[in-house]
Write a structure and sequence with these properties.
2 copies of one chain form a homodimer. The longest helix of chain A is centred in the middle third of the chain and has 19 residues. Chain A contains 11 helices and 5 strands. In chain A, helix 7 packs across helix 10. Chain A has a 5-stranded antiparallel sheet. In chain A, strand 4 and strand 5 form a beta hairpin. Chain A has 2 domains: 164 residues, 2-Layer Sandwich (Beta-Lactamase); 64 residues, Winged helix-like DNA-binding domain superfamily/Winged helix DNA-binding domain (Arc Repressor Mutant, subunit A, Orthogonal Bundle), CATH 1.10.10. In chain A, 46% of the residues lie in helices and 11% in strands. With 250 residues, chain A is of the alpha+beta class. Chain A binds a DNA duplex (30 and 30 nucleotides) through helix 7 and helix 9.
Chain lengths: 250, 250
DNA sequence: AGCGAAATACCAAGAACTGGGGATACTTGA
DNA sequence: TCAAGTATCCCCAGTTCTTGGTATTTCGCT
């Protein structure tokens, strides 16, 4: 197995900061590696609304239409399997990751009728909120280029990283919406401290801490701490690394 | 740039199902690619309860000791940067991902004194807030083999996937830690509902909701709602998409 | 110099949460 | 069959939060 073929792609994707060309690059990978189609997605919700926020693909229009109109995202075994692996997997090996139901098999069969045969999907999770995937697929009857799955793995990883950068889905921490002091109070609150404990830590009075949290809640339009913290986490104002692994008050 | 050198590693790691040899493989990668050290970690839990971490490394004992005794994990800019990228990054480019403080630079300086110079870290997130990373580092004064960072990216990805498989870490992301009812109460609490509101939604008494949340806090060993919610989020018991942007009580 | 935003501090009432107790009924696995 | 766990309900004392105010100082900006 030679990885030479990934040379250009890797170099291109590792540094790229705009999404112009990402689609073309993925298209070229398909051709060079012996795949027929690709699809790159990000979705930020796990609940009912499953519409992806980022979506690049060159699937047959029919399949895309069927997938959307019948809301197959909620039934897609590939999507379920993404939660159970950190690396790419072929669709025919999905049942080693998640149990396959009859409906799952039927869905893949419909896909074949629409021009999508087997595929190799690289899953990727974002901190806490979202997941993405990059898939390379072949036509029905075609076989996956097993010699180059490692290349697909690498290209998929870099493409997802590139898409994450350009889409801003991993927002940089910005204090835009809260003042420093508010953010500080919020941070210690998120670490499980009470207002009085936070006051001691920051060397200010408890009432001031309460006031800062009050203002912060007002800015986000929420009424309780839990929503405030989740909003700030979502906005990247506080990071997961800032709040996990903190000893609680004893 | 040739990726040939990754040939054996990729083949080895893509299929491996046991963790025997993973450490040796990573060691060999270091030698072949021109790195001096590696470290592969998974962080799986938040809060007071100390759950197993996966940790494979060949760092100098002194650095490991310093890192642990001074609890540098909480201050490590590399860890913070992992939240802001889906692909690997060199330590010297961290400030493009997260702002670097004087303390951060000082920490890296201490690392250099303990035998760790520059490094390339591949971050990886698990469903929920758990995360892992695979780092390849060079001695102080040494320079990263930039020609082979793509190989490091691939090997890091495969090694993390391998470690995830063998450690069973992805199986943990389930409802294992909380009962269904507890999780349900927690979910509505995370959406900003009070106990009495949650009681109405679920059709049970407020005291029962309080009790469920009490038991949930007990399991996680935390004393307040915010920590409970973050813990559940970290474990993937509730997803960000499930709780964010949910209409609050009016 | 004046303005607005931020940070600081305080008060008070009521709602909500936390940490102790109990209790009953049902399911599940040893 | 018994023990453990789950789900449901209840009580209570004390603490913490939330919400509504007011007010002073500092700082940057125009």
């Amino acid at each position: 197995m030679s990885l030479d073929i990934a040379e250009g792609f890797a170099e291109e994707l590792l540094g790229v900061e705009t999404d112009s060309g990402l689609k073309e690059t993925l298209k070229r990978v398909c051709g060079r590696l012996g795949f027929d189609h690709f699809a790159l997605t990000f979705e930020t919700r796990t609940g009912a609304d499953t519409s992806p926020e980022v979506l690049l693909h060159d699937y047959p229009a029919e399949w895309a239409k069927v997938y959307i109109t019948f809301d197959l995202a909620g039934k897609d075994p590939v999507r379920r399997a993404c939660d159970k692996s950190l690396t790419g997997f072929t669709w025919e090996s999905i049942d080693r990751l998640v149990p396959m139901t009859r409906g799952d098999r039927q869905m893949l069969a419909v896909g074949r009728e629409c021009g999508i045969g087997d595929g190799y999907t690289v899953p990727r999770h974002l901190p806490g909120l979202a997941r993405g995937s990059c898939t390379f697929a072949v036509r029905p009857g075609g076989s996956l280029p097993t010699r180059w799955l490692a290349v697909a793995e690498l290209v998929g990883a870099l493409a997802l990283g590139c898409a994450a950068r350009t889409s801003g889905i991993l927002r940089l921490a910005s204090n835009a919406r809260l003042s420093d002091r508010q953010r500080e109070c919020l941070l210690w609150t998120a670490r499980g401290k009470t207002a009085s404990e936070t006051a001691i830590i920051l060397g200010i009075s408890e009432e001031t801490v309460v006031q800062h949290l009050k203002m912060a809640r007002e800015r986000y339009g929420v009424h309780c701490r839990q929503s405030l913290i989740l909003s700030a986490l979502f906005d990247g104002l506080i990071g997961f690394g800032d709040v996990i692994r903190w000893p609680e008050r004893s």
